[in-house]
Amino acid sequence: MDADIRHLRHFVAVAEEGGFGRAARGLGMAQPPLSQSIRRLEDGLGCPLFVRTSRSVELTEAGRELLPLAQRLIHQHAVALNRVRDVARGHVGRLRVGVLMSTLAPVVSGLLRRFAEAHPGVAIELEELTTVDQMQALDSGRLDIGFLRPPLLGPHRLRLTVIDRDHSVIALPADHPAAGEEAVDLAALRDDGFICPPAERGPGYFGNLQQVFEAAGIQPRIVLTVTQPTTMILAVASGLGVALLSTPMAAVQVPGVVFRPLRPPADRPVHELAVAHEPVLSRHRADVQRFLEVVDGVLKDGFADRRDRQGD
């Protein structure tokens, strides 16, 4: 017979109490079943664990060898069970979060900070990925949460919660004629070359930019396509063109680049920021559910407008 944790608990109780009666009372059980449990353990091991007298019991050499091992196993068993319970409740774990460089806005850092404070046992792993790559990673389960920019093109199973909307700003070389203006009329830049992200890497974001251009009544002359917004800013600093970016990117300070807001009608908010997750994969992930609860709580506090969408 293999000794199970129940037999080991009974053995440790008798050893620590120095008697069957006291151990039985501490365990909340009758003495005969306790004695039978110890006997089964001894029979299974093929050796006595106690020397029994009329007044007390003493450990045999085998019993003395087993006691610290049993105590350690009981402790590890309790630790393992508590760990599993904590994971199931979302108190510990590993939350894999995808972000875009252009979404590193206060709303994102605020959500991550609030979740970390409420659930310090959950490790947050951030990975910078494009919207398309985040969609694939969420769909495959490689990511748990994504911060991305809708609309998402093509069929998907993701559930989105819009948490913020912001405007576009124009990044200009510092020596550009419009750099000294408080706000820029985008139509006045129709002859400038524009640096844009490739449409296939962020189709929704690219579509938002098209809305801005259409509002200004211009067809941009794209001179360079760049995936990362920080690289777009460096390209502007090199004098390769101008770039439309979301408002949070104006916090990136690069020598030789200035950011200016747009004048109407191109100044409307078109860049949405959403929290995304795959509802089937996250249904039994308590840590993901706890994160979504934090998102709901922040939105109810008036941190941002909210709009829920169901994937196609």
Protein traits:
D-Maltodextrin-Binding Protein, domain 2; rod-shaped; 3 domains; 3-stranded antiparallel β-sheet; disordered C terminus; alpha/beta; Arc Repressor Mutant, subunit A; 312 residues; 13 strands
What is shown here, in short?
The protein has 312 residues and is α/β, with parallel strands linked by helices. It has helices at 5-17, 20-27, 31-45, 61-89, 106-118, 131-140, 203-216, 229-237, 279-282, 286-300, and strands spanning 50-52, 57-59, 92-99, 121-128, 145-148, 159-166, 168-173, 193-196, 221-225, 243-246, 257-261, 271-277, 307-309. The chain has three domains: 5-88, Arc Repressor Mutant, subunit A, CATH 1.10.10; 93-164 and 272-309, Periplasmic binding protein-like II (D-Maltodextrin-Binding Protein, domain 2, 3-Layer(aba) Sandwich), CATH 3.40.190; 168-261, Periplasmic binding protein-like II (D-Maltodextrin-Binding Protein, domain 2, 3-Layer(aba) Sandwich), CATH 3.40.190.
Please write out the topology.
Blueprint: H1 5-17, H2 20-27, H3 31-45, E1 50-52, E2 57-59, H4 61-89, E3 92-99, H5 106-118, E4 121-128, H6 131-140, E5 145-148, E6 159-166, E7 168-173, E8 193-196, H7 203-216, E9 221-225, H8 229-237, E10 243-246, E11 257-261, E12 271-277, H9 279-282, H10 286-300, E13 307-309
Parallel strand pairs: 3-4, 3-5, 8-9
Antiparallel strand pairs: 1-2, 5-12, 6-12, 6-13, 7-10, 7-11
What would your notes on this structure say?
This protein is of the alpha/beta class and 312 residues long. It has 3 domains: 84 residues, Arc Repressor Mutant, subunit A, CATH 1.10.10; 110 residues, D-Maltodextrin-Binding Protein, domain 2; 94 residues, Periplasmic binding protein-like II (D-Maltodextrin-Binding Protein, domain 2, 3-Layer(aba) Sandwich). It is built from 10 helices and 13 strands. The strands form 4 sheets. The chain has a 6-stranded mixed beta sheet, with helices on both faces. The chain is rod-shaped, with a radius of gyration of 32 Å. It starts with a helix and ends with a strand.
